[in-house]
Sequence to fold (429 residues):
Amino acid sequence: MISGPFSLRLRRTLAAAAPLIAALWLSGCEYDTYPKDLAYPLRTDLIVVNAPKNETPFYPPGPGHLEEEIAAIPKLGGQVVDPTDSKKVSAAQRKPLFSALNKAFGSPRQPRVGATEGEEPEVVAQLTDLKLRDADAAKPFKSLAAGSKVYRYHCVHCHGLTGDGRGPTGPWVVPHPRDYRLGEFKFISSVNAGENTRPRRDDLMRTLHTGIEGTSMPSFAVMEERGDDLEAVVSYIIHLSIRGLVEKRLLVEIASGEDYTDEAKLDEKVHEVMKDVIQQWADSNSKTLEPTKGSYVENPSTKAQTDSIRRGYVAFSDPKGAASCIGCHTDYGRQVNFRYDDWGTLVRPMDLTKGVYRGGRRPIDLYWRIKGGIGPSGMPKTGLPTDKEIWDVVNFVQAVPYPQMLPEDVRTKVYGPVGEHPGTERAER
Ligand code: HEC
Ligand code: HEC
Fold:
């Protein structure tokens, strides 16, 4: 028992220490490392296997309702798997999966990728190229641990502990923060390899430098000046993404009747799927969508530029042509047609008269978007056969938000007669 006067002294001491504790807390040391015993939990949210393909009649629900968009999928003809449904994924399956994933991918404080001992040399080479492993054989995952610290400080509140896009801020912002566990990204420059398309490291770095315009994803360019290591956090995102995709594939297999209660068989399977996913990252990272040399004309004469914009307009607006952009970007995107993306959330074909580009506004950014498509959002890679035609469409897309930049005949087609759309009468636009 604590006697009266002593308890008073204790209370006074505690009161005196309070500012010190607060200062320590505010100084950030609380936030930059994860507790030692923290493990990546097994996912419990619905897994989207097939999102509905058609446009949906409804708008995204308001902030805070992320799961409602996903829960509506089965009613609209899509397919989801509930990993908490014990008839499909029993406790006897979840437990060994949890420990097999932890063996292969470590913990938030000590992340890793690969077999705990004796990883195959080809896999080591791929992991080293992707900067998931360091050359130092004694501490091969030092960069991943450094990236995890940066992630905890700057990203986890939106992108979530496992990269599920469900940090505390996540459900409250629209579009929702990227859920990395699908292995899919939107703003990329790798060759479109269907569902096996992964981004290049450079793409993730670019996104971190520029942020994503028109969304809550900020630019982190200043972090480099503070000394934070953006390369390390990119490695960490790739780690989360590989872990999430392996987890997803195994849960879906188990839910469809595969038996992985045997620990050794499961470890082997986790390793096999992991190798497959690493291979996809390595392939995508090594190939950039490069425009044909000389296909882009910089600083063209006004006449050449006007002609190119006009050709771009024709390609864009022909509903039966090889580009067929207008079929989705109805009325140049001014008409709002929501559709499901691969994450099971709603996206709309961008309103191209607004001049907001999530993936960057340089000609090369728009070239990549059109040439490779935005796979997870359902925008296909273009059917335009030559790069010259793609650049025409890029020139049109760049001019369309600014009526005064369009040749008069095109301007009338897009905006109607002068004065019909606000802004068409103002030369400064
Ligand atoms: C305030 C919330 C927020 C924070 C903090 C945040 N992000 Fe994001 N992030 C988003 C949103 C929202 C998107 C999705 C935008 C979209 O779908 O167009 C996104 C998307 C991404 C993407 C996907 C890009 C693509 O091509 O698909 C990456 C990579 C990413 N964020 C990395 C990070 C990293 C790394 C950090 C921390 C350094 C971070 N984000 C912090 C909100 C955030
Ligand atoms: C099947 C539907 C579909 C077709 C066809 C389509 N798009 Fe898209 N487009 C979309 C969707 C959906 C988005 C929004 C993607 C997102 O933000 O997730 C989009 C976004 C865009 C963006 C914005 C990119 C950014 O960085 O924000 C551009 C530019 C674009 N599309 C141009 C085109 C062009 C040019 C064509 C024809 C070659 C085309 N689209 C064909 C559905 C389509």
Remarks:
- The radius of gyration is 25 Å.
- Residues 404 and 428 are 8 Å apart (CA to CA).
- Residues 1-5, 20-28 have pLDDT under 50 and may be disordered.
- Residues 186, 316, 323-325, 327-329, 347, 349-350, 352, 357-359, 366, 369-370, 374, 377-380, 382, 393, 397 surround heme C (ligand 2) (CB under 6 Å).
